[in-house]
Amino acid sequence: MKHSAQKIGLFAGVLFMFFAANAFAAETQSWRPTYDFVMRWVNFAIMAFLFFKFAWGPLTRWLRGQGDEVAAQIKDMEEKKQAILEKMAETKEQIQKRSQYLEELMARTTENAKMEKEQIVEQAKAEGAQMIQDAKQRADYQIAAARKQFRSELIDEAVELASQKLPGIISSDDESKIQTDYLEKALQ
Predict the structure, then answer these.
(1) Looking at the whole model, is its pTM more than 0.90?
(2) pLDDT tens, 113-161?
(3) What domain range includes position 43?
(4) Most buried in the list 14, 78, 85, 169, measured by CB within 10 Å?
(5) Domain-embedded: residue 81
């Protein structure tokens, strides 16, 4: 409050000094222009003295205060800027670490998928080989069964055919000789 009053007084004094002198100089005498000139300088000297005596200290303190305040604000801004830069660097580092982690995870996942694929292919090959082997065994069994059935049918047909044709061809002597050979072989 005190500083504001001093500032207003100083400003009013300077205005008075320059504008009031012309208003009082309406009389024209030979000594008056010199007096006015001298009084302007005396008033200026008084105003300068008052300014330096009463206003200079508060004005300089106010200017220093303003400068200190601006310097504090600049320092605060610099600290905030540094904090933000550090946070940005930290964030960039975290992003880089996460990117590396994702790349490693993707590489591991790809490797695991390849290994799983190879296992599935190997398992499919083994199952395919087992299926082929089972199919061969079934085919061999069916072929063997078909051969056995064919032999059995062939033998039945041969026996039937022989039964039809042999009674007229084989004599009773041939029949007793066959029986004797069969018994000899069976007893041995």
Answers:
(1) no
(2) 899 988 998 998 888 888 888 888 888 888 888 888 888 787 777 777 7
(3) 2-87
(4) 14
(5) yes
CB 9 within 8 Å of CB 32 = no
Based on the fold, state whether residues 152 and 81 are members of the same structural domain.
no
Domain final residue pick, 25, 58, 87: 87
CB atoms within 10 A of CB 122: 10
Buried b (16+ CB within 10 A) or exposed e, 127-163: eeeeeeeeeeeeeeeeeeeeeeeeeeeeeeeeeeeee
Written as six digits, the tokens of 19 are 């504008």
Domain tally for the chain?
2
- End-to-end Cα distance, the chain: 149
Q: Is residue 121 part of a domain?
A: no
pLDDT digits (tens, 9 = 90+) for 39-79: 999 999 899 888 888 888 888 888 898 989 999 999 999 99
Structural domain contains residue 156: yes
What residue type is 117 in one-letter code?
Answer: K
